[in-house]
Design a protein that fits this description.
HEPN_dom, HEPN domain-containing protein, 0% strand, mainly alpha, 88 residues
Length: 88
């Protein structure tokens, strides 16, 4: 999802710095996405970003198998939407 968000940024002529890059992508997507699903997509993306941070830097085993399966479904939906936007 992060890579798809960054791809949209790049296609629009923007890039992130190394500091705070994940947060910058979330903010960019909040401005760029136009749909009734925007708020849900941003909430999911940001929640997954925070959980990833916790897994990498703080805790282990905080994601259940069900959460992982749902995250994959959301990621597919998100990437498809971003792909459509990049093509236009």
């Amino acid at each position: 999802m992060l890579t798809a968000g960054r791809a949209l940024m790049f296609s629009r002529g923007y890039r992130t710095s190394s500091t705070g890059g994940h947060v910058a992508v979330v903010k960019f997507l909040n401005i760029s996405l136009e749909s009734e699903a925007k708020d849900r997509m941003i909430m999911i993306f940001n929640g997954m970003r925070k959980k990833r941070h916790r897994i990498v830097y703080e805790e282990m085993d905080i994601v259940t198998e069900k959460e992982a399966e749902q995250a994959l479904k959301w990621a597919e939906e998100f990437v498809e939407r971003i792909f459509e936007m990049v093509r236009t």
